[in-house]
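Translate sequence into C-alpha cells.
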Amino acid sequence: MSKEIRKELKIMPAELIVVEHVRHVYACRACELNEITTPIITANMPKPVLAGSFVSPSLMAYVMTRKYAEAIPLYRQEQQFKNFGVDFSRQTLSNWVIRGANDWLKIGCMNICKKKIFCMQMRHRFKY
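Result follows.
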C-alpha cells in the first residue's frame, strides 16, 4: 500500500535566554599554605559587544534586523519585549542600534568597499 504525507509549517516564537559567562579564578593552594607569594590566574572571558551592557550579538542583530529589514520601529519592539517579560527602554534599543551600526557595520562595510575599490584600481591600472 501507499502512504499519505501531510506537511505543515510550525513557527517557534522568539524567546530570550540568559547566558551566564563564568570566569574562574585560580590560586596555588600549596603556595598559600607555605606562605609563599600566591600566583593568581584568572581565566579569559568573552568580550561583550558593548562594554557594560548585557546585549549579545544575536540580540543586537535581532533588533537591527527588525528595525531596518522588517520596518518595525523601536517603540513597537519595546512593547513586544515587554510581552516577553523584559523591560528594554526605547533609548536602550536605540543605543544598541547606533553603536552596532557605528562599531560593527561601519567596519565591515568599509572593509568590503576598500577591497572593491582596490580591485577596481588594479583592473584599471593594467588596461592599456
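Note: The longest strand covers residues 25-27.
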